[in-house]
Design goal:
Layout: H1 27-30, H2 33-39, E1 49-52, E2 55-59, E3 66-70, E4 73-76, H3 82-89, H4 108-121, E5 128-129, E6 150-151, E7 158-159, H5 163-171, H6 186-189, E8 221-227, E9 236-237, E10 248-251, E11 267-270, E12 279-280, E13 284-286
Parallel strand pairs: 3-9, 8-12
Antiparallel strand pairs: 1-4, 2-3, 4-13, 5-6, 7-13, 8-10, 10-11
């Protein structure tokens, strides 16, 4: 089968052309209304999202604790798996192989490309753009143009969570005070350095938190949207980080980390082009109110 856009030969079962980045539809998907309806239903090749209600919570720890308000949003029940990543991107970059393990060895730029491609696959409006370009696969991860990427939070497509959204979702609700996502006992909810057997594990094999979210702590750390910066001490509403920076936030800790790095409040950052076998991501969506 060849790509209808650029005529490049396609490997089997690709949903996007790896050369031009355009979506590929099979004859069945192009055909009847019933097949189109099927495309708009959840399947296990795509992340399953859970609603998180709007609320206020205390973000951070110790002297950095401050009040934050977040709007309601949707966030994926699990980390993006290797099966889900391959379904959209046509490849699996992971070092620790297992289709239901979290995808890893993905840099921040590739996570944004995945979000936009999944949005297009689901006929949603992509959140990310550089100039007028939304097919971000045309840009190398090391290119300085990535400093100009913007996120339209009013789009209904998939995106990375902001750091505040991630921490609120990990905590489970405004009145939860667990050190880890769903428990004060890390072994109940997380694969980390002392119980992981030096590898990732299938998602959702530990207990979820009160929102039904798995692996918010441990397994692999998670990319967030924000640039790394010192947390403000004043109250914030829907914070999205500074406009400029060098490192992007990663949260949650991983199979490689000690227990201190797997708390709901521990913060660290990595270069956007960086990747490792203990770093992956999950996706979220803004909840867009329909205008009358």
């Amino acid at each position: 089968m060849n790509c209808p856009n650029c005529n490049s030969e396609l490997p089997e079962n690709f949903k996007f052309c790896p050369h031009c980045g355009k979506p590929i539809q099979t004859e069945a998907e192009q055909g009847t209304d019933s097949s189109k309806e099927k495309m708009n239903t959840f399947n296990d090749n795509e992340p399953h999202l859970i609603a998180v209600p709007a609320d206020n919570f205390f973000m951070g720890n110790g002297e950095s604790t401050h009040n934050v308000s977040v709007d309601s949003f949707m966030i994926s029940e699990t980390l993006v798996t290797q099966k889900q990543f391959r379904y959209v991107m046509g490849r699996n970059p992971s070092k620790l192989i297992g289709e239901n393990r979290p995808v890893e060895s993905v840099n921040w730029c590739e996570a944004l490309i995945y979000c936009n491609r999944l949005s297009m696959l689901r006929k949603l409006n992509p959140c990310y753009s550089i100039g007028n370009v939304k097919d971000l696969s045309t840009f190398d991860a090391g290119s300085p143009v990535w400093k100009r990427v913007i996120c339209d939070f009013n789009c209904n497509g998939y995106r990375l969570p902001t750091e505040a959204e991630w921490e609120y979702a990990a905590r489970g609700s405004s009145n939860q005070d667990f050190e880890y996502a769903g428990s004060n006992d890390i072994n109940e909810v997380a694969w980390y350095g002392e119980n992981s057997d030096v590898r990732t594990h299938d998602v959702s094999t530990k207990k979820p938190n009160s929102l039904g979210l798995y692996d918010m702590c441990g397994n692999v750390a998670e990319w967030c949207w924000d640039f790394m910066d010192v947390l403000p001490r004043s109250p914030q509403t829907n914070p999205r980080g500074p406009q400029l920076g060098t490192l992007r936030i990663k949260r949650g800790g991983s199979w490689l980390d000690d227990y201190q790095q797997c708390t709901v409040f521990f913060r660290s950052g990595s270069a956007p082009a960086g990747k490792s076998s203990n770093l992956g991501f999950r996706v979220c969506q803004s909840i867009i109110e329909e205008k009358e």
